[in-house]
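Case study.
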Amino acid sequence: MNVKLKRTLGNLFYHIFVAAFAFLMVYPVLWMIFGSFKTSTQILNESHRLLPTELKWDNYISGWKGFGGITFATFFKNSIFVTTIATLGVTISSAMVAYGFSRIRFKGRNIAFACMMVTLMLPGQILLIPQYIVFQKLQWINTYKPLIVPSFFGSAFFIFMIMQFIQGLPKELDEAAIIDGCTRYSIFTRIVLPLIGPAIVTTVIINFYWKWDDFMGPLLYLSRPQKYTVSLAIKAFADATATTDYGAMFAMSTLSLLPVFFIFLFFNRYLIEGVSTTGIKG
Amino acid sequence: MKKAPEAKGKNKGFISGKWSQLVDNQNIAGYFFIMPWLLGFLLFTIMPIFTSLFLSFTSYNLTTNPKWVGMQNYVRMFTDDPLFYKSITVTIYYVIFAVPLKVGFALMIAFLLHRRSRAADFYRSVFYLPSLIGGSVAVALIWKDIFSINGPINSFLEVIGLKGVQWLGDPRYAIWTLIAMTVWQFGSSMIIFAAGLKQIPEMYYEAARIDGASRFHSFIYITLPSLSPVIFFNLVMQMINAFMTFTQAFLITLGGPLDSTLFYALYLYRRAFAYFDMGYASAMAWVLLIIIAAVTALVFKSSQYWVYYESKEK
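After joint prediction, the assembly is written out as follows.
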């Protein structure tokens, strides 16, 4: 009885501690979401209060108007465009390259693979300036090309991730397919691609939110507000209005995170699904 | 694997024409598939690296042609640029505090949540949320408000009877708002640790329990050594990232006050895209690369004393 009581108490204590800590961790996020329903004076002068007194959508309406005559509809459209095309590009190219590296034994494979692994650790700063200069020479500044085109050349991170997954598929599948007359190309489209679904979805999800959140790329390459992505627009919007309209800034910040929140809800489930499918396959 | 299925396939399959045999050659097919990466590697990595190295020995402002100046950029950096030293000091201070705190937190929480229950799954995803959204502009802007004079942090301090601090206006504290933000995003490291913890055989703990070890002891003598390769991996990756921190400092403090948060990457950005001093900024990028490589090598070197690989022992 005593032992049981001790354990229950210990459990209770554990849950109180972890839950309190979890609450503390998400507090900034909650403060932002609830703040988007408060008036600017409430945000500024009653910062100890978390919950809004009433649910008002005024901030969303005034925030959506954006700045300089451009509404957030434009910025969201821009972001969706860039993110979608770039994600499409990176997923297709990375899957191809991953298959090449993990299933075909061509000359120079090991050296090429080592080069790729080195680029994983290479600080991006070193490439920043020359890349900017090249894009400037190509007159790509103020277009989406610098944000989109490099995606079509694969990304070392995703290539490596998909490779891990392909290596989990039994080699006998390839062998059987070759006997049945498949070429290395049709093995990719008919056998490997359908089986690496979870890795593809993970790539899409991770790249989507990376691109969605990307700030430095748009900051460097986009200078006309008409072209701004959401992340850059929020910054410009805050610079223009933060002193006067906190509420609207909170509302637009919340809105900009909506796609990521959405992914968060599905991402977790998908990870578990991915692990269980590979468990069965392995 | 050793059965050479390629050769067998070629003979037995119904692709018999010379052309299709040639196309299906493993070298051609191999390079066909890695072509996107290979082109990208040459165009967006190799070429820029050499351009950057060349530019670091020039004076270049984007409008006129680069002018060769030899080692001048490097000499200027080390002898005549107090901001360069300031930015190195700030960055190293940040790395030293933010990285171990982040990895430590990640490990602690992963260990705390290492139990098979729905509640633990739920908590893990809650702790992961900050990592997911922490890089966004929105969160950086909110962070600024959280630490503002009338923000929630100061309100809370007042409630428990302490006096609020000018977090963003005081050179002593401003960098801690950024460190706090980095540590707040410990979730992704935690997920990696959680996966690592699952790999440790339960019987180790059982054996320790029979021998009378406490939870604390089994953590020190079983969990930590078994997890040391994962800790090492996390430490290296987080360190490289921390050296390159840009967005948060750019959005929250803009380097200020009094350059107390002038991160190296921020200073480099300013040199390149505010002053258009591309040659100098390229030289700075190379110095950063060397610093990161040296520190990573040091951590690698130290790993032989504290990272435990099971396979080696056998």
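Observations recorded in class. Residues 1-15 of chain B have pLDDT under 50 and may be disordered. The two ends of chain B are 26 Å apart (CA to CA). We will return to this complex in the next lecture.
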